[in-house]
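Kindly inspect this today.
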Amino acid sequence: MDFTMTLYLRHYWKDERLAFPSRTNQSRTFDSRLVKKIWVPDVFFVHSKRSFIHDTTMENIMLRVYPDGNILYSVRVTVTSLCSMDFSSFPLDTQNCSLELESYAYNENDLMLYWKNGNDSLRTDEIVLSQFFIEHFHASSGLAFYSSTGWYNRLFINFILQRHIFFFMLQTYFPTMLMVVLSWVSFWIDRRAVPARVSLGMTTVLTMSTIITGVSSSMPQVSYVKAVDIYLWTSFLFVFLSVIEYAAVNYCTTLEETRKMKRGKIPSTFNASQAMAFDGCFHDNDMELTPFSRAAASLTSDPRAAAPESLSSDARPPEGTRLRRQRSVRENVDLFVSNSYVIDSYSRLAFPLSYLLFNTIYWSLYS
C-alpha cells in the first residue's frame, strides 16, 4: 500500500533581500550551509511514511542565487508515501497513485505553491519498473482545508501504474491450468484402477493447495476477494470435483457388482475387493453387461401380435409407430448405476467445456 520515489525537488522563488550587484549577471552557488541562514519554503510530503535527504558524500542540497534575487533551491530526496490501492482485480489491476506536496506552516494567504511550467515541470527519464508499466504521469494542483488552520496550497504528482501480467502467468496461471488438465486424465483411466486414479486426484488437489498457499503468502492481507483468488479457487473446485466424480463412479461400480453377485451373474469365487484394488483384474466384458433395452426391440414385425386381442383393428397403432414410456427418476438413477462408465464418458466432455467457459468469462471480465 505504498510506493518509494527518488526525485530532485527544485524550488523557485524570489527574495529581493538576497539580490546583489553583478556586472556579468552571473549567479552564485552555495551548499547546505547557507540554507540554514536564509528563508526557504517549508514543503513537506503529505501521507509520507518516511523520507530522507541523501548525504553521500555531502548533503545533496544546492542553493543558487541570481543577481536580481531569484533563487533556485534543489534537493535530492527519497520518499515513501501512502497509496490506497485496490487489489480486487489483482494481478490484472491498474493503480492510481500520487505524491502530494504542501507547506506545513504557511497557508494560502502567506505562501502560494504552483508548478513552474505546468505539466512540463515533471522531467522524467525513461523509467522501467519490474512489476509495473507507467501509463500516465502528470502534475496538478489544488487546495487542502484544515479546520484549525485554514486552506493550504497543495501540489500533486499523479501517475497511473499498470501491473505486468507475464510474471503471474508463468508463476500462477499456467501451473494452475496444467493441474486442472492433469486431473482430467483420470477420466481415461480404467475405473477399477483405484490406486492410479486416487493417487492422481490427491496429487492434483495437494498441488493446487500449495499454489494457493504460495500466492496468498505473498499478497497483502485484504478483506475482499481478488481476481487471482477467484481463478485459483474455481480451478481448485474443478480438481476437487474430478476426485468426487471418481468417488461416484467407484460407488456405482461397487453397487453394480453387488447386484450382479446377488443375481448370480458373477461366480461366487470372484473377489470384488481384489477387482477394485488392481488394474485389469476384472473388466466389463467379464461381467456380461446387458445392453440398453429399447422399446422398438419389444415390438414384433406383425402389429397384430404386439397388440392385445381385446383391441379392435381401429384401436391398433398404425404400422411403424413406436411406443415409448418416459423413464422415472429412479429408473434413470438405476441406469447410471448399472452403467457407471457413462459418468466418465460425460465427464470427458463436460469438464473441459465448463473450464473453457469459465476462462472465457474470467479473461473477458478482468482483461
Q: What stands out?
A: Strands lie at 2-14, 28-30, 43-46, 48-53, 61-65, 70-82, 94-103, 132-146, 150-163. The CA atoms of residues 188 and 344 lie 8 Å apart.
